[in-house]
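Protein 1 of 2
SEQ + STRUCT:
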Amino acid sequence: MLKSETNPVWQRVVILLTTLVILHPVNAEPSQQAVNQPRQIDVVIALDVSNSMDGLIDSAKQRLWDIVNELGRAQPQPVLRMAILSYGNPSYGAESGFVRVDLPFTSDLDTVNKTLFEFRTNGGDEYVARAVNTALNDLSWTSDPDALRVLFVAGNEGANQDPQLPARLVTDLAASKGVVVNTIYCGHDSDAEALGWRNVAASTNGIFASINQDTAAVANIATPMDDELASLNKDLNETYVAYGSAGAAAKENQVEQDNMVAAMSAPAMASRAQTKASGLYDTESWDLVEAVQLGKSLDDVAVEDLPKEMQEMEAEDRFSYVKQKAAKRDEIQEEIQALANERRKYIKKERAKRADADEKGLDEVIQEGLQALAEEKGFTFTGE
């Protein structure tokens, strides 16, 4: 039998490592902290804007905020970017396959809303494969290997009618890029065209759903919390302090998008208020309160870039002003979040009551799809 020998150097190393483990048993904590760091989610919504799709467009306008709020429940808190693409409009030109990128990836949700409200339908050829291909090649997706990259494409014509580009070719490309393609067919799932939409989704392990875009897609559930949430939203707007060259226009756009959503329905406005009280609503580029909270120094802001009410203040008064606005915002956001939680539970109960009678709408389909895909990536969802 061979006699083993202990190398004195290795013996000291083993003793040192053992001592470190004993003295610092929480060495796993940094990896846990890494897990809890914000993670990127890129979401693209590609909408058919041909003549027959007015219901789908109206649904997207009303239900954007419900979709965002679903991601607001994800943990760890995601860093959300959205992009909007439309297809099926002849004015886009045959060379593009009648596809257009309406909004590249952005974290500015007010701009996302503005883009949706600018859509107008116009008859044309709807090439699903070309829409997916444009999203894959013309958008700057995150390169983060742990990110969730999802594309939702919605329409009502056959998914395989592109004369130049086979659907399977683009779904293979999507899979190679780590993009999950989810399809929403605006029709009955027993229709002949539904199979093509199913196959497109299955090719990337995506989710297929069918909706009636003229009824369930625009259905809203009113709640007793809606009016109070709308009122709190107005109070919340008073806490934003626009600064810099783009500040005034951005704040004006914020109010304009409030008005557009409120004109659609009270439930839509309630959902938007909830988003504005969450970490997904990004105003850092124009709102001094959020910018300072995220590390910007007031001393670095030129006096002429400050709002008029701050320009004549002493430095100490400026700090107090921003601090007071931040405290007020925190207070209002807490109220909104508490009401929004009650509202979500109310809607969940109402949907359960109507489950046999109502068809799923655009928001419900996307919400469920996002949650399932995010959970596969290791996200968890609060408030179940």
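Protein 2 of 2
SEQ + STRUCT:
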Amino acid sequence: MAASPVLSRRRLGRATLARQSLLDASNADVVAALEATGGLQAQEPASPYIALWARLAAFEPGTLDRALAERRLVKGTLMRRTVHIVSAADYRALWSATQGPLERARRTDRRDVPDPSEVRDLRRFGADFASQPRSLPELRDAIGERDGRSADERVWWLRRVHPLVHVPDDAPWSFGRRPLLVDADAWLGPGEWPDPIGAMELLVRRYLAAFGPATIADIARWAGMTVAAVRPGVEAIDDAGDLRTYRDDAGRVLADLAGAALPDEDVPAPPRLLPMWDSAVLAHDDRTRIISDEDRARIIARNGDTLASLFVDGVVAGRWWAVVDGARTRIELEPFRRLATPDRIVLEELADRLARFVEPLEPSVYARYRRWRKDDA
């Protein structure tokens, strides 16, 4: 049996960038783009918009607004128990794969898992009371206390055992900071909830198409699950004959989809400006294909906040900040090292374009995260 080909760290980085449309901008529509990128983290409302601005050849915010309003895309708690925007077609499988089993909640969240009767009660409540959009205060008032659990704790569990999605509103980025939540079936209409293996297979396929080649530990970190939980999805792809394997420089086995893009390590990677919590930065357990261990602490704050970044030659090379000067927004670049003149010129041009993009919607986007700014001189 032939040995698996070895892929350098640099080539793995180029593969991720190619699949994330960060080598060459994509002409895909927003729904196809969301599926190709594995969904976009969205607890900060601006981030999916800026992520698509960085990836699509001609992105207008209204196209994402319309796809959300038309329910072709949906926002809800999914991978890593964080808020993502994904396609409506993928939502049920991704929710089933990442949010279903309560054993993970016991390990990850360190709270007593409700007994089966309470879980059934929470799910009935979600299906009935949240069949129309509800605010968090409305959910807390209606759910009440039970068996020593406060209303806040019961709502916390409700959002982990029952699929609730965010309802778009008239905020600048389609969503404000006080979400309205609604039962997923009520919002999306009738649809099948896949079996566990089918759900996990789709999750792994989406991941590998967006971020592979990768270890099973990488997949598990992105999903917020255990290696054992995601392994059946990898095995299902292997059984279908669609799995390819490689090794990295350290000898670790890498899984990938047959025919997925695998550009040469010398393919040029143009400078990019990416938002907070960008998928390209967060998608792997070993992130050194994208960001050095040294720079990781400058991008990922103590509480997990992942700051807006600038890329040079395919890796994180600094941060950026939106600053309001009078009536205008400018993007302030903060490279970690001296930039070559051609890279600096391209980044300054991108910064001006990004400033014009965010200015009408949120001129000081991410301003509250400047508390994490450090003097790295």
